[in-house]
Amino acid sequence: MTEIVPAEYAWRVERARALMARENCDLMILDSGESLAWISGYTVSETMYRAVFLPREGAPWFILRALDEAPCREGGWITDVAGYPDTASPETFMVEVLRRRGFADARIGVDFNSVSWNPARAQVFTTALPQARFVNLVGATDSLRWVKSAHEIAQIANAAAIADSAMAQVAAAAHPGFTTREAAAIAAASFLREGADTGETGPIVRGSGSHEFLHGLFRTDELAPGDILHVELIPRVAHYGARIMRPILIGAPTARQNEVAEELVRLQDAQIVAMRPGAIASDVDRIVRQGVLDAGLRAEYDNVSAYTLGLYIRTPRSSDFSRVFLPDQHWPLEENMVFHVYTTAEGLGFSESVVVAPEGGRRLTQTPRRMLLAGE
After folding, report:
1. Taking Cα atoms as reference points, which of 99, 100, 67, 71 lies closest to residue 84?
2. pLDDT at 262 over 80
């Protein structure tokens, strides 16, 4: 269960209300799964529509299925919780609550890009509340969560420690004849023993090519001497996720593998050092992207070199690309943003969970920065 720290949620409410003030909104609707967890401490799937309603002044309220009322009260800090029966229309129920609470003619902010605010749902609200003004808080679902609190970073660090432990266990158990399924089972069991939310591991596959293996299909591959076991681990603690990738060599590495690994790590280390507040994303990205190309490690480098880390639940996306490192991304990094930085070439992939800090990026994952060898 998510730890409810009153000062933490007061900070989050203050951030949301600052955005409302800038956009002159009387009320904000937060309805994505991540936003619900972030603002309230509780989240639930969208089997039926659910949302938190945050006024500029006064306490927020949560509306969801009556079946989920008790878990919501238990799992979050919002005490004003209203449940509707499964026979009701969630949107109609919510509209009636808005009328009763005096928001029928309010300026209501909502992120139109939220996966939960679909056109049909928006039409119900706007038709039923013709005097209200619905304001598009573009990207608020993600942008409110870009800069992390100390509490959030601590949760990601907890997840990072679980990832490090699981990686060490997989490497120690690996051997010729070891399978990708056995590796995944070790990692998943380690996650659950050490306090992760679930046993979901991330891609664990045979490494080959420049980067295609990163999203390789999971299957039971038996590993032979000379194979690379690519392991990406994505444990979550209280919904907050850390991520790490390492190649595990079955047998002794070749001279070329040592050369490629050392260069990838050197370039990524330089990128991490550059992750200071005010640094421009495209400049930080260039360190790895252009460095890998200049070194002849890849013919093309078209994928991102980092993306946002933080709060994850089950949604249509498994990664948060609301902030990424690419050549066309010219926004400045801010202190306490957290990213999954990764780079790959010739079947070898290295990644870390990194928080932006004044002295340069600080790694939350602590696994040694090198290829791992089976059985070590």
Report:
1. 67
2. yes
- Provide the pLDDT confidence category of residue 1 given band limits of 50, 70 and 90: low
The pLDDT, as a whole number, for residue 4 is 79
For residue 212, pLDDT beyond 90: no
- Taking alpha carbons only, the member of 18, 19, 9 closest to residue 110 is 19
Tokens of 368: 């040694």
CA angle 85, 88, 94 (to 5 degrees): 95
Q: Parallel, antiparallel, or unpaired for β 240-241 and 236-237?
A: antiparallel
- For residue 231, give the H/E element and its range: strand 228-233
CA dist list (Å): 257 to 34, 103, 251, 348: 40, 63, 12, 8
Q: Tell me the average pLDDT across 363-376.
A: 97
Give the integer Cα–Cα distance in Å for 110 and 119. Answer: 13
Name 267's Cβ contacts closer than 8 Å, sequence gap at least 6: 287, 288, 291, 292, 295, 343
Query: What whole-number distance in Å separates Cα of residue 360 and Cα of residue 353?
Result: 13
Residues sharing a CB contact under 8 Å with residue 259, sequence separation 6 or more, in sequence order: none
Tokens of 106: 């309010």
What is the average per-residue pLDDT within 24-51?
A: 96
Reduced to 3 states, what is the DSSP secondary structure of residue 59? coil
What are the tokens at 355?
């928080």
Locate 376 and state its tokens.
Answer: 């070590």
Residue 234, token pair as written in the block: 């994505």
Domains and CATH numbers, the chain: 6-143 (3.40.350.10), 150-373 (3.90.230.10)
Residues in the chain: 376
At 144-163, the pLDDT tens digits run 999 999 999 999 999 999 99
pLDDT of residue 179: 97
Confidence of residue 315 (pLDDT cuts 50, 70, 90): confident
Of 35, 51, 147, which is closest to residue 97 (Cα–Cα)? 51
